[in-house]
Amino acid sequence: MAAINVYSTNVSANQISRNDLVEWVNGDLQLNYTKVENLCSAAAYCQFMDQLFPGSVNIKKVKFDANQDYQYIDNFKLLQSAFRKKGVDKVIPVERLCKGRFQDNFEFAQWFKKFFDANSSDKEQYDPAARRGGQKVANSGLTAGGGSGGTPKKTSKSAATRTTKAAASPTARSPPPASSGYRSSASPTTAKPSAKAKELETRCTELQLVIDGLEKERDFYFSKLRDIEVLCQQPEIETLPVVQEIVRVLYATEDGFEAPADDEAGDGQAF
């Protein structure tokens, strides 16, 4: 079943406050978010899609403990995939949302709440904690298994005494062999390529998501123009002056642009 799309959300009278949004998310998904910015991980949106359209999101792949940009992006990729499956036209501003700024996340959350209300039904009960499978949820105070965290272990008095004596011993303070200096200098060197590679991988994923969004938006408007073109070619209206003017605008090109010849159109690549 395709989703009901929601387009008009910029009416101030229908806006939901930030506190109401957070309460809605926490109440519906059994979370403990404290602010709208916590939604930047996209984990909650993925679970809402799982609730609205079972099977649209592989819930096992959702990173509920995400706390880094590249993990947020992985979740947004799952969300975009679910949108495509259900015919949702909304373009997700992934790069802006991942930065965790209030205004961007507030606006998207406003839209998603209205999308949720338009598509929700009370036919089946949904257990959000069970669907998460006991995964830890970042920024929500929920640890693995759904608890709120454990008590840190106390260090025993005998262990503390041994640690103190070892620290006071000259032998314990003596510097390690020279080879350890090689290890300490090599460690950050080997870590730099890995960090750089991760940064480039994250950037590539961000750009790919932007491209996917632009292509989807391009296809959407192209289909509208194609519908107008077909309509203008109807015999009963194609000779009307206003229709001919519309056709002229549709086929107009910018200065310096030349359309490919008909016999070459099939040989070139489409962009």
Description:
With about 270 residues, the protein is mainly alpha-helical. About 55% of the residues lie in helices and about 0% in strands. The protein contains 11 helices and no strands. It has helices at about 20-30, 45-50, 70-85, 95-100, 100-120, 130, 155-170, 170-175, 180-230, 240-250, 260-265. The longest helix has about 55 residues, at about 180-230. It is globular, with a radius of gyration of 28 Å. The protein starts with 17 loop residues before the first helix and ends in a 6-residue tail after the last helix.
Q: Whole-number average pLDDT?
A: 77
Q: Which structural class fits the helix and strand makeup? A: mainly alpha
Strand elements, count:
0
Distance N terminus to C terminus?
A: 32 Å
Q: Which value, in Å, is the CA radius of gyration?
A: 28 Å
**Fraction of residues in H or I helices:** 55-70%
Order of helices and strands: HHHHHHHHHHH
How would a textbook summarize the main sheet?
none
The share of residues in extended strands comes to under 5%
Note the overall shape: globular
Low-confidence blocks of residues: 146-176, 178-191, 262-271
Helical region count? 11
Topology:
Layout: H1 18-29, H2 43-52, H3 69-85, H4 94-98, H5 102-119, H6 128-132, H7 157-168, H8 170-173, H9 179-232, H10 241-251, H11 262-265
Helix pairs in contact: 2-3, 3-9
Question: Would you kindly provide a brief summary of this structure?
Answer:
This protein is an all-alpha fold.
Keywords, separated by commas or semicolons:
mainly alpha, 56% helix, 271 residues
